[in-house]
């Protein structure tokens, strides 16, 4: 069954099981999470720590608080939840409950659960009207854990591989992409450092990426720059991105903030950094343009930016064309190469030579959307409005005018 939905002039046609994603889109383009008592299925409980992301596991913390050992794996009383019925003989879990988040207090591919897993697959097969969302740190075991009739994957199952740092991303994601899976997602949570997943996104096989910081009293820091970088990678490949939570220790603009648990998800939402292609969601990000003097002082201190200068030939061209023509060229370049939500070949769209404006773009960090966000705070993923485009042209012309006066 399909549903058509128009959001900010963009029409989406989505299978109804995916409505949990759509409900994250508000009129402001922000995302929201949806959970109810009936859309989490924990067939077994307990796990074993296997990588850095497990160090401060929330399941271990919660179990310890009630005197329970989270390393002991046991089948739960909810094992057969997908096929349980109420007194009227109807399934307790229905399509109205949305996605069924599976095995959230363990790992679906855990070795200890090998004897129970086939029963889960049988229930998942039986309940094809539900969509099951399975997160695992053990994607390298998935092939041996899959049912015999898995084929190229089941339509009602999304498999999500986690990668908390670059090491785990480069170990797990190549395995993940080779597996026969219909719906793949990536979660970088807790995010423990900058992660480059661009080459994996470029395959076109990843449907969604989530990033978030670590909660708990011993939480390790999460830096907004890491979140922004993965977000930019997602934008370049038109992959939806969800900034889930800041974590307890959050770094922004070099300052460290300690955030209460109740505010970690709301603060992430408030940032506006969650992104769905074509919805204008980035328009909600609040930012402030840099003060012009501070900007140029910073560019001057940058070893890379400060090496760009107009050659004698560039100056001759600029003098011949005049300020008005150069400004017209700058305006045209900005509009055609920078202004789109996801410019073609972003990061490579500005030549290193051939026109004074190209040189100015590299010198002032107006060459691509990543540099524009890092230096000028203009968020990636938004269509540049007239005011933003005019600001960029002004910066370029300021630099060119200064260079023309330089001996």
Topology:
Blueprint: E1 2-7, E2 10-15, H1 19-22, E3 40-41, E4 44-45, H2 58-65, E5 74-75, E6 99-102, H3 114-126, E7 131-136, H4 142-145, E8 157-162, H5 166-178, E9 183-188, H6 198-201, E10 206-212, E11 222-223, H7 224-236, E12 241-245, E13 249-252, E14 255-258, H8 261-271, H9 292-301, H10 312-321, H11 323-337, H12 356-363, H13 369-376, H14 386-405
Parallel strand pairs: 3-6, 6-7, 7-8, 8-9, 9-10, 10-12, 11-13
Antiparallel strand pairs: 1-2, 4-5, 13-14
Tally of DSSP β-strands: 14
Strand count, sense and closure of the main sheet? 7 strands, parallel
Reading side by side through the largest sheet, how are the strands ordered?
3-6-7-8-9-10-12
Amount of helix: 25-40%
Mean pLDDT: 91
Shape: elongated
**Proportion of beta-strand residues:** 15-25%
Give the uncertain stretches in residue-range form: 1-38
First and last CA, distance: 69 Å
Return the structural class. alpha/beta
Element pattern in H and E? EEHEEHEEHEHEHEHEEHEEEHHHHHHH
Quickly count the domains. Answer: 2
Computed CA radius of gyration, to the nearest angstrom: 25 Å
Figure out the total of helices: 14
